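User: Show me a protein chain along with its predicted structure.
Assistant: Here is one chain, sequence first, then structure tokens.
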Amino acid sequence: MNQILPDRSSLKNYGITRSFKAGDEIVSQDAPIHSIPIVLKGSLKVMQSDDEFREMVMYYLQPGETCVMSFLAALYNDTSKVKAVAEEDTEVVFIQIGKMRELMSKDPKWLNYVFQIYHKRFEELLEVVNAIAFKKMDERLLQFLKKKAEVSGSKNIKITHEQLGQELGTAREVISRLLKQMESEGLVELGRNRITITTPA
């Protein structure tokens, strides 16, 4: 996505840049949004929770990408319907919605950027809906692990079974059983708080 971000070299001049540690919450669900976060380094996971505080990962943001949900909330003076958490040490620039409107009106490349981000997020959300509706949990789990590996750039994923259950909206016991099955099939190797994908992407 980096290639479509306009004027990335001077992006920091448009807003406030902040650094976050892995696990830091960057955008809170139900909180008002006044600035648009754009990832400069690292990655974020965008999640949604229900009334029982069960969470599910909707999509990831990588360098050059922004959260279209935050953009829409800021644009229409609404609260965030998702939360964004740093997947790793991450640097983010926050651009006030007024400045973003100005950039979009002055440079069509910014408007094109927002539409392309919206298109990508829409496709990813369709994948989530498709996975929940039509795929078995073992297929969803393997697909999810491959996505995390793609985002991190490594097939060695540091995560607990409980965390995986939370991010996929299921019980830890279900994840543990499926991972054992996947290990016996040669799809993954399990370690302490670590999963290595052994199957091709």
